[in-house]
């Protein structure tokens, strides 16, 4: 099952596609509890200006409820699932692809 932390598994192109769909406030909320490695990958896949704005949004949020963070993460995961079902992105799950 795909979780928010699994965004780290997306290739850059897929992550950029997801970021185009995600509400920036949701992303800021979701990143409040994210590992630094995931935050940096997301920032690297945004324009410098967008990354600066996102960092500012995260800092302006101040303390937030864990439930709000989890709900924002779930909305982002739902977007990832929708894009995967539409075959607009590919999620690498460490499984070897077999072509017949």
Describe the protein's architecture and organization.
The chain has 100 residues and is an all-alpha fold. It has a single domain, classed as Orthogonal Bundle (Annexin V, domain 1), CATH 1.10.220.30. 61% of the residues lie in helices and 0% in strands.
Describe the secondary structure blueprint for this structure.
Layout: H1 12-21, H2 24-31, H3 36-44, H4 48-61, H5 66-85
Helix pairs in contact: 2-4, 2-5
What's this model, at a glance?
By secondary structure, this protein is mostly helical.
Share of β-strand residues = under 5%
What is the mean pLDDT? 92
Radius of gyration from CA coordinates? 14 Å
Total count of domains: 1
Q: Give the H and E element order.
A: HHHHH
CATH superfamily: Flagellar motor switch protein FliG, alpha-alpha superhelical domain
Helix tally equals: 5
**How widely separated are the two ends?**
26 Å
The major pleated sheet works out as: none
Main attributes?
globular, single chain, 100 residues, mainly alpha, Annexin V, domain 1
């Amino acid at each position: 099952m795909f979780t928010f932390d699994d965004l780290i598994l997306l290739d850059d192109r897929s992550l950029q596609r997801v970021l185009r769909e995600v509400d920036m406030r949701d992303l800021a909320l979701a990143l409040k509890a994210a590992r630094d490695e995931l935050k940096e990958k997301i920032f690297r896949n945004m324009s410098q200006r967008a990354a600066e704005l996102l960092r500012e949004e995260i800092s302006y949020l101040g303390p937030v409820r864990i439930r709000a963070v989890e709900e924002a993460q779930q909305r982002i995961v739902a977007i990832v699932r929708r894009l995967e079902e539409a075959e607009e992105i590919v999620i690498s799950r460490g499984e070897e692809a077999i072509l017949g």
